[in-house]
Amino acid sequence: MSADEGDGSADDRAAAEGGPTVRRLADWDRKTLRSLADEHGTPLYVFDPARVRENCRRLENAFPDAEIQYAAKAHTARETLQTAHDEGLAIECASAGEVRRALRAGIPGQHVTYTAVNPPAADLDYVVDAWREHPDLTITAGAADTIDRLEERGFDGRLRLRINPGVGAGHHEKVVTGGHPKFGAGLDRAPDLAARIAESFAFAGIHAHAGSGISGDDLEDHRELVRRMGDLARDLESSGIPVETVDVGGGFGVPYREDAPALNLDAVADATREALGQIEGQLAIEPGRYVVADAGVLLTRVNTVKEAPEMVVGGVDAGMTTLLRPAMYDAYHAVRNLEQGASDRDAVGVTIAGPVCETADLLCENRPLPRPARGDLLAVGNAGAYGYEMASTYNSRPRPAEVTLAGETLRRAETLADVSRLDAPEPTTPRSHEDQP
Ligand SMILES: *Cc1c(COP(=O)(O)O)cnc(C)c1O
């Protein structure tokens, strides 16, 4: 069928198939980003829900038989949750706050999962209350204690068992969860706990999550985790415990470096199916980063340029309080100067530094970039995942706004008044120095 034969344009069809495997920083339209920065100020997160849609579709094409849950903590804007759900994904939540967001976004309880990691009492109280109204929601627990605490609250609904598979993976030691005793019940304890859940709750299967950043290189770790989960599922089945779902977690990587290849989703899917083997239940995955990373960029403006002997330091209005990943994980994010003609300037070693008095407050260090000038607008790539979500008000700095490519506000900018809004009220009579002891 040709492009003008009635089922939409070639672009529409490409979008239905999931669009390009990756959206690079250079693919974002420079003029649009500049006008958004002019209109909304900087720092500013720009997010494109259309790209979320494409990423969901590629996942569904690669994993047609799996239950796909979007790990909401990567980007919790209502529009993101709704877009992912529209595309057929369920929503995996890491806290009471995320469960609340998902339910308020209209996601039906049967498509909401709460993964409890050392859950605070208030989280369990909230989620068990929510379950009374949405009895189809699923809770995932990874410790006998958590199961006790749910039972004490009267919960007897859908409960999934988190397993510590003994293998982990990730782009940085701080995101490897799979082997750490903090997460999940050991494989040796799993049969007893599963039997207990099957007796007192609706056993909703098993779950494991290796960590973040599966790439072509560590597919072996992923394979090993999936293999162990498949074996466990078969063991449980043969002891008479049906396993509805085998959830092998998220962690699908994205190329942060401009020259890194896109993740080969089909290869991951093939490896997953092969390692899983025959199971009675359904495979589930929980990607977060993969769904939203390349759907967002951060815009920031240069305010100070300093020629240091060994590099040029470009001071900008975004920093570790806006985008924490470089400071926390030594993460690499592509940086692009959006000014007209910037690429004609000489390239120098540039360090992009934020306004916080911490050495870690750098978005990049000694990176070859066009010599920055005061007022330049810079874009930071792959900021859609764990960007806005990890922003803080450290240094009493308001968090930035986040808008869509079309200019709609997803979250307004905080003001200085917002930053101190939780402080105790000011005393009604001002105190002078003399009053103090
Ligand atoms: C964070 C998390 C995910 C998503 O990880 P990504 O690296 O963003 O894909 C999935 N499952 C669990 C339990 C998580 O904690």
Automatic annotation (TrEMBL):
Q: Which reaction does it catalyse?
A: meso-2,6-diaminopimelate + H(+) = L-lysine + CO2
Q: Looking at the keywords, is Amino-acid biosynthesis present?
A: yes
Q: Which UniProt keywords apply?
A: Amino-acid biosynthesis, Decarboxylase, Lyase, Lysine biosynthesis, Pyridoxal phosphate
The Gene Ontology terms for molecular function here are:
diaminopimelate decarboxylase activity; pyridoxal phosphate binding
Pathway of action: Amino-acid biosynthesis; L-lysine biosynthesis via DAP pathway; L-lysine from DL-2,6-diaminopimelate: step 1/1
Q: Where is this region: Disordered?
A: 1-23, 414-437
User: Pfam families given for it?
Assistant: Orn_Arg_deC_N
Catalytic class of the enzyme:
lyase
Residue list for modification N6-(pyridoxal phosphate)lysine: 73
Which CDD domains does its entry note? PLPDE_III_DapDC
Q: Summarize where pyridoxal 5'-phosphate binds, as residue positions.
A: 251, 286-289, 386
Which residue ranges have biased composition labelled Basic and acidic residues? 414-424
Please list the residues that make up the active site.
357 (proton donor)
Enzyme Commission number: 4.1.1.20
Q: Summarize the subunit comment.
A: Homodimer.
This chain's function reads: Specifically catalyzes the decarboxylation of meso-diaminopimelate (meso-DAP) to L-lysine.
Q: Which family does it belong to?
A: Belongs to the Orn/Lys/Arg decarboxylase class-II family. LysA subfamily.
What is the recorded name of this protein? Diaminopimelate decarboxylase
